[in-house]
Protein 1
Amino acid sequence: MPWSVSGVEMRKRQAAHIEAPPQAPGQPRPNTCCLCWCGCCKCLWTEDRLERSERQTCTKMDSIETAEEQHPSLEDVLSWSRSFEMMLRSLEGREVFREFLRSEYSEDNLLFWLACEDLKKETNSAVVDEKARIIYEDYVSILSPKEVSLDSRVREGINQTIAEPSNLMYEEAQFQIYTLMHRDSFPRFLNSSVYRDLLANRRRVCLDT
């Protein structure tokens, strides 16, 4: 008889343990979770793990949203007008400049420049080969719809080195496109509504604060 009563009590404790509401994170769990092996969705260990995963996901998403909501300061925007190089080195500056270039159908110039910057940082020979080939197919080949404007001398030099690519093989072509953007696109960008509207917006924000 004592054994029977003990068995009943044990089943009651197990049932109460399964049906109990999830505990707040950080609170100690009751001992004896003998049913965890079954993978039951009501297992407190499983619930806590899911809660932790959800909290971590929310935290990551909040960080991403915060990063996406960042805007350049008035000082940043003004500095771009003084230095093309400074604008290119700024993530926000590149994005605004790219928006302007897109309106002039010359966005590929900036994308080519960025791809060359990425290639120059690469040290793995296999990756260099792959990235050099992609750059050639995307921006140098006359068959590409995104072909950038390079003079015949620079283009011929690239054709001669493409068989044995290096991370610096596009350096001269990159400088040529850099010069084109600096002398041709950049002055129009500073006079465009894209830049002027952004500048006016940053000034209003400064006055409001």
Note: The radius of gyration is 30 Å.
Protein 2
Amino acid sequence: MLPLPGSGPFPGILDLYGTGGGLPEYRACLLANHGFAVLALAFYSYEDLPKGMKEIHLEYFEEAVNYMLQHTQVKGPGIGLLGHSKGGDLCISMASFLKGITATVLINGSVANVGAVLHYKDITIPPLGSNLKRVKISKSGIADIIDVLNNPLEGPDQQSFIPLEKAECCFLFIVGQDDHNWKSEFFAVEGSKRLQAHGKEKPEIVCYPGAGHYIEPPFFPMCAASMHLLFGKPVMWGGEPKAHCEAQIDAWQQIQAFFHKHLTGKPSETPSKL
């Protein structure tokens, strides 16, 4: 967990990235500058963790949540979760099955379990099905995989829809409407419908036209395409440079304000800065 200046305790956040693996810490570092105690959590392809992502056991994440809840520098009674891409559906799974979660933010996340079998105690959630025949290849040889995943509302794939209605937290969905990794806006809308159908609070959904999949902190360069470790080929992530840049600035403010509101009960004290 990142050290913080000043006297605590501080509102706690667990920060996860996606299928790139490893341990990206830069977003956690930046959030720590704004008065949060942040634990950047790797879940595969890092040190002694599994090299691949075939199966995921939620007990590993439960241990991290409990560590945060018991830490003397973390202000309770609950913590926040922040996840991008695959990290987003892992955050939904944590919020749905684990205790002590107060606020969850997804950045272009899925409401279905994707890419690996998820286990928790006697519960197993299969990964959402896919069809590689739906891949489109651009003239430059970069793959567009936006249509590859199946619909989690249809047939056997309904088993992959994470039961987020079990969560006892507030949700914020950050959505890039030009996301080409998958249909983030569809996932956010369907997640909202499911929550409300079960009498839960309507989540906040903030959509950004022209923003792609990799919505990072402000002033990070837009990643339009790169190697997809699960797909094994370069894929396009989407995004129009100017719109994407503006989305990153606003989303950073939205994320901080959401966590301050739900973890401290107070608005942000100072304007957001990187």
Note: Residues 241-264 form the longest helix (24 residues).
